[in-house]
Amino acid sequence: MSDGPVTGSGVDLFDETRSINAFEIGGTFFMIDASKPMFDEAASMFPQDGRGVIYTLDARNADSTLFFVTSDDVNDWSDKSSVSAAANGALVFDFYLEKFDRNAIDGNGSTMFLVVNFNENFNNAFWNGQLMVFGNGDGTTFSDLAGSLDVTAHEMTHGVIERTANLIYQNQPGALNESFADVFGALFEFWVEGENGDWLIGEDVTTPAIAGDALRDMEDPASDNVAFGKQPTRLSEFVDLPNTPDGDNGGVHVNSGIPNRAFFLFANDPAVGIEMAGEVYFQALTQYLTRNSQFIDCRLAIIKAVDDVFGAGTSEAEAAKTAAANAFDTVEIFDDEGTPPPETLPPVEGEEFLTFIDTGSGLLFRVSLTNQAEPIQISQSPVSSRPTVTDDGSFILYVDDTHNVHLLASDGSSDEQLSTSGVFSNLAISPNGRFLAVTANVALPSIFILDLQAPSDEEGVQEIELYTPTTAEGTTTGEVLFPDRIDWDSKSEVVMYDAFNTLVNASGDTIGYWDINLLRPAEEAITRLFPPQPPGIDIGNPVFASNSDNIIAFDFVDENGDVTVKAVKLNTFEEGSVVLNANSLGSPTFSNDDSKVFYHRIESGESSIRVVDLLEDGITGAGNDQTIISNGLFPVAFAVGERPTGVEEPEEAVPNKFVLHQNYPNPFNPETTIRYELPKDAEISLKIFDITGRLVTELETGFKSAGVYTVSWNGQDSSGNPAASGIYFYRLAVLSGDRIVNTLTNRMTILK
């Protein structure tokens, strides 16, 4: 018998004999399914690198190293979990190919991985972006999850979702993510078992000692047979949980019951039926839903998809649209406007500049893009990594060649070293000036968030250990070695970063790769931005557009080492090629108005700063790239000025609480503005103190009517003397006679 694909059999977790597709190598049979039309024999190297195959691998009750499942007899496999996983996983492939003409999870025939025996008594199954992973269960809460048809399809559908709508795994989009995984899990079970299928999810493996229990019930999410807590059945019962890992990412597993019931009602309407309901939902998922879709967007997407599937204008389509409307009305997802696309901010108004590192001296230079002047040196120390600029362009922070942080006036008038520890690598200042995200100059899988308003340095440092998220609550996987490039969103709430990761495959080989993720520091929650890339592909150096959190640019490195600077609209994942950059990373940055992308190119040991215009779509290069600066690296574009708010406070508006806003700009020199709000008439005082608590000056005192106030401070003490560079505190006190009844305090920095 020659090596290659073979067919055998094995006994599964329910003691049923199942057909198994395996691969024979030298008389040993590997649980590698090479029977599907996606199999690429020419590109495969067995057993470690089969292309277009389905691997079933064994974690052997651990959580890191994976092992091949092998046998000396193709009809005798010792591990029942592996037999169930291999047989069910092969059926999921067949289901998507036959029903929806989808070639594997990604639609392009990429290799699929199933992992059994994960950890000890692990009561879950999950998708981590690369692997479909099954726990054995503890025998009480769950039996071995590899035995369940709908659980297998549910978790693998998470991969399909990730590569289509890519619904972000939090709040309503995350609940839709879970619901669509349940939808296709149930559809798969009906496809396999026909009339014996049901609307229960995980009923074969949930609380094995209790008959009839299930993980979820799509017909009645609040049924008594739901084992671990009833789900809401309508929007008025939505469970508002915190958007944290401990809060189920905003209740994604809880609130999925609402759209689940809508699908059940839709599929059971005589005008639709299960078969056509699946077609409609697949069309909605792949064509209309986007990353940030809410429940209302799901309703609208389903109704659009009905026209596609049934034929716009036909009586069948009208009846199916009525069925969809009735289903969503029943769960209180009523007709309304869809979620608007992410907002675009107005650009900073002021003179535009580009800062970059001079490769000869290592110093930071600045050039005016408005006046086309010659570059001028602005830093006093060599710079080791990409600098970061405050939103108003007044200050630049950088890491020097001794790994210390500097605060630099963007015109070069001052350059102050802020640290002496020599531990920093990369940094990014948040647009509101409050937070500084930094990474270490050693291989540490952490990002540090420095709160510049904290009363002390000790209280203002947050270390967040990075991880690879999964669809299982509280479960993470992967080995993140270290992050590199970091950038903040416009709301100062999310840090985008790239990271170098390792993965140990079944041959014991360690594979390294770069990916891009989003971190919400307040919740210490991480979301993968892109699905895992094919082997040999790396993505990194991400940056947000200057005025939109919906557009990013990044470096895409293919398997040959060639680099393309790409841009993506995150909500729809529409992708554009900005420029081909040979084999050089580009480290892109958007212009102040997002009409151009600046990047660097290194060729034959020479570096240059280049620029390319973007087409009207904002993500595709116009093909007119050109060199504008020789001997430069790490360009950063910015403008010195203010960003128009576009919103004016109504004159009659009365605040509902006392508020003391962060001063702006901060750090500042020579002047800053402080804004505060009073919900009622009050006696107040607004004072400045130095870091020792000594009173520097009193800005305002006396009676104030309810309203919003602004006051400027010119950085001088009460005697008119300039205050020195350093940290200061400003305090708003509300008085009742001689007694202080309320105080609010913030921190500011003067840099001269």
Short précis:
With 752 residues, the protein is an alpha+beta fold.
Core attributes:
Immunoglobulin-like; 8 helices; globular; Neuraminidase; 4-stranded antiparallel sheet; alpha+beta; 752 residues; Elastase, domain 1; 36% strand
SSE diagram, text form:
Layout: E1 4-11, E2 17-25, E3 28-30, E4 32-33, E5 54-62, E6 67-68, E7 70-71, H1 80-100, E8 112-118, E9 125-127, E10 132-135, H2 149-162, H3 171-193, E11 200-201, E12 216-217, H4 248-251, H5 257-267, H6 273-287, H7 295-311, H8 315-330, E13 349-358, E14 364-368, E15 376-377, E16 388-389, E17 395-399, E18 405-409, E19 415-417, E20 424-429, E21 435-440, E22 446-451, E23 461-465, E24 468-469, E25 476-477, E26 479-488, E27 495-504, E28 510-520, E29 525-528, E30 538-544, E31 551-557, E32 563-569, E33 574-580, E34 589-590, E35 596-603, E36 606-613, E37 626-630, E38 632-642, E39 659-660, E40 672-678, E41 682-690, E42 695-704, E43 707-713, E44 726-736, E45 739-750
Helix pairs in contact: 1-2, 2-3, 3-5, 3-6, 5-8, 6-7, 7-8
